[in-house]
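Service request form, structural biology core

Requester: graduate student, group of Dr. S.
Request type: structure prediction, single chain
Budget code: on file
Notes: please return the result as structure tokens.

Sequence provided:
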Amino acid sequence: MKAWVESYGCTMNQGEGAKLEAQLASMGHTLVSDPADAELVVVNTCTVIKETERRMLRRLEELSAQRKNVIVTGCLAAVQSGEAVRRAPNALVVPPRSYISFTELVEERYGPVEADAVIALPTATSAVVPIAQGCLGNCSYCITRLARGTLFSYPPEGIVEEARRHLEAGAGELLLTAQDTAAYGMDRNTDLGGLLGAITSVPGDFRIRVGMMNPQSLAPVLPSFLPAWLSPKVYQFVHLPVQSGSDRILKAMNRRHTVKEFEALADKLRSASPGMSLATDVITGFPGETDEDHRATVELMGRIRPDTINITRYSPRPGTEAARARSQVPGWMSKERSRELTALRADIGMELNLSRVGMEEGILITERGKEGTMIGRTDAYRPVAVRGDHPIGTRLAVVITDAAPSYLIGEAVGT
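Core staff response, request fulfilled:
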């Protein structure tokens, strides 16, 4: 059949969607470039917030009305399978924990297709490499925890082999992803530092971006992580979500770290690599959040000054502890707090990026930008827009000439 895979949400979903696409191709299905031409559509869903859930369900209704053969994967398939089937009654539902049986489940429903049983990895400059399912946390607001379950780390030798194949196919960067990459290996007597060391030992000129890490998971493995992270093959970038600047709210979130512990981790990372970039996440309007709690978050961002602040307005998710809380914050108040943090994010980003004007950086071109520009990443994973038609996957020396709140602007050296 003619097949189409569309993935929503996090980097891990994108990576898993690419693998499902490759599996369909290896089974003999023909991948198409337009969903309108597809007979079989895989909707790799996200349900992290209510609005995203609504989009997913509308999409399933739309495809069902078009009489497409629908396969529902991703987090919604795990925690809201009944709702998915209600919107697309004939859909095949395959939650993430069943991906190992994806080929068999598809063949059972739609019949086998003659083909070579070799899964071809997609060729791309940026290759997503999932390293684990689930996590060891118990955050009171998180539906992903319910969808993905407890930690299951993939065998390191398989991850290294997948990385090697991506690199041999032409990838220039590997995006390691999981619900909590710092927890990797805690269920199989290894850790993230060991995995990074194994991947960086693969020959070649490439970069690794380590995905999101929870503070409580990173702290105990920091002695192993730091030496591996400081490899020239690893982006000097860390995504370390704090979620709130109030210890009271962190406790209600079941986050298992304090503000002081978060700040200490950020200080250690910056001491080890002064030019690193730090990303963090903040939730506004969590149940029970007061003006004082919000002010503590604003003040923390002012002290830490992250390069990137991902801001999310709290959205109650079914089955979570926080959704049952009585002290829900009004939507208008959450929106006002989000606006204040968004303005602060822009101010911090602009100040930090302007401080880099005049510096020379080496970048890897990873995508096309707007208005005749290309986007590249520095060794600290900072995005740089540079004019010219520079081939994706090439390295380029640039001088930073200007800045915007969320990216740098550069000029190729020698032009």
